[in-house]
Amino acid sequence: MLCKKCNIVMSISGTSYEPKRNKEDRGYRRYDECPSCHYRKYYNGANFQEVMNKEIQKSRSR
Predict the structure, then answer these.
(1) Residue 38 Rama label (left phi>0; alpha psi -120 to 50; beta)
(2) For 7-50, how does the pLDDT look when each residue is reduced to its tens digit (9 = 90+)?
(3) How far is it, in rounded angstroms, from Cα 38 to Cα 5?
(4) Residue 45: CB partners within 8 Å, gap ≥ 6?
(5) In angstroms, rounded to a whole number, what is the distance separating the alpha carbons of residues 18 and 45?
(6) Residue 49 three-state SS
(7) Spatial contact of 29 and 18, defined as CB atoms under 8 Å apart
(8) 31, 11 in Cβ contact below 8 A?
(9) CA distances from 38 to 24, 43, 45, 47, 51 (A)
(10) Measured over all CA atoms, what is the biggest interatomic distance in the chain, rounded to whole angstroms?
């Protein structure tokens, strides 16, 4: 993903944790961060570990 401001590849990824506001809220927000200007782009996708766990569960149920 490219940064809007400086057009550099956003390489730093992370998760910020917050208290849940309601039952639909997950309590965390994932983001990619630009290394030069520190602009954060938030997204709702699963991280690598969650994807791997989902695939393992699929293979065990077969």
Answers:
(1) left
(2) 999 988 888 888 888 888 888 889 999 999 999 999 888 888 88
(3) 10
(4) 30
(5) 17
(6) helix
(7) yes
(8) no
(9) 29, 16, 20, 20, 27
(10) 47
How many whole angstroms separate alpha carbon 13 and alpha carbon 53? 20
* Residue 56: per-residue pLDDT: 95
Entry pTM = 0.67
Return the closest-CA partner of residue 15 out of 32, 39, 37. 32
Are 42 and 16 a contacting pair, CB within 8 Å? no
Give every CB contact of residue 13 below 8 A, 6+ residues apart in sequence.
30, 31, 32, 33
Residues with Cβ < 8 Å from 1, sequence gap 6 or more? 9, 10, 32, 41
